[in-house]
């Protein structure tokens, strides 16, 4: 369906705490974070790692210091961070949970979503410091899905409103993504949505028994490293 191919924007590492997530990436790839901050709307915070090719890695966790809203109940956090099943998994350690694909102009993400609301979750306006963007986030905070299948392998979509991209301010540290692989027992359904979005070229997808998983292979100064 998509007339334009999407671009891989960043990888998402979910963590119980930011420190745990940073250690997970540092141990896997031998790099350190060089950016990040808070997302007041989602009550989360992140740490960013740079890579070659305009890609970056985002470690994200619930912000324990986020102020509680005095008015209406807060909206569910993004990337399923409020999901008890994901929280139970994070008790065993951080992991590569999700990926985000970029919609470049002149295509308008918000308009595309309004045209196909069954395919694309609502676009939420977000801000951190001098950065602003629109991100697709289901109303319940879950990962995007198609026909009930997502599990982190169907990407969120992002469109940056800021003139600069976060990766512009991050060091590359000699790290470059070699391959992004996905395994899912219903790979055909995931692939159908990726094809429709114009994102199938970004994920090497295969069918497999067991839990869905993302695996990223990187070239580093120490050789090939794997992030799971």
Automatic annotation (TrEMBL):
Residues 8-197 form the Glyoxalase-like domain. InterPro entries: Glyas_Bleomycin-R_OHBP_Dase, Glyoxalase-like_dom. It comes from the Bacteria. Gene3D superfamilies: 2,3-Dihydroxybiphenyl 1,2-Dioxygenase, domain 1. This is Glyoxalase. It comes from Burkholderia ubonensis. The lineage of its organism: Bacteria, Pseudomonadati, Pseudomonadota, Betaproteobacteria, Burkholderiales.
């Amino acid at each position: 369906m998509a007339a334009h191919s999407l671009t891989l924007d960043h990888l998402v590492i979910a963590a119980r705490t930011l420190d745990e997530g940073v250690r997970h990436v540092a141990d896997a790839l031998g790099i350190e974070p060089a950016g990040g901050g808070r997302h007041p709307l989602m009550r989360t915070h992140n740490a960013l790692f740079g890579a070659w090719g305009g890609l970056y890695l985002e470690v994200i966790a619930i912000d324990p210091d986020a102020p509680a809203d005095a008015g209406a109940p807060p909206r569910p956090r993004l990337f399923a961070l409020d999901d008890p099943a994901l929280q139970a998994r994070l008790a065993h350690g951080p992991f590569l949970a999700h990926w985000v694909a970029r919609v470049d102009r002149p295509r308008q993400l918000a308009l595309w979503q309004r045209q196909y609301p069954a395919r694309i979750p609502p676009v939420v306006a977000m801000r951190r410091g001098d950065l602003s963007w629109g991100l697709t986030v289901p109303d319940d905070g879950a990962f995007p899905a198609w026909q009930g299948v997502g599990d982190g392998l169907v990407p969120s979509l992002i469109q940056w409103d800021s003139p600069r991209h976060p990766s512009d301010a991050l060091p590359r540290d000699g790290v470059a993504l070699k391959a992004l692989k996905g395994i899912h027992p219903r790979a055909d359904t995931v692939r159908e949505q990726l094809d429709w979005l114009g994102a199938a070229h970004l994920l090497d997808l295969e069918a497999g028994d067991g839990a869905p998983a993302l695996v990223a292979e990187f070239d580093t100064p120490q050789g090939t490293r794997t992030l799971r």
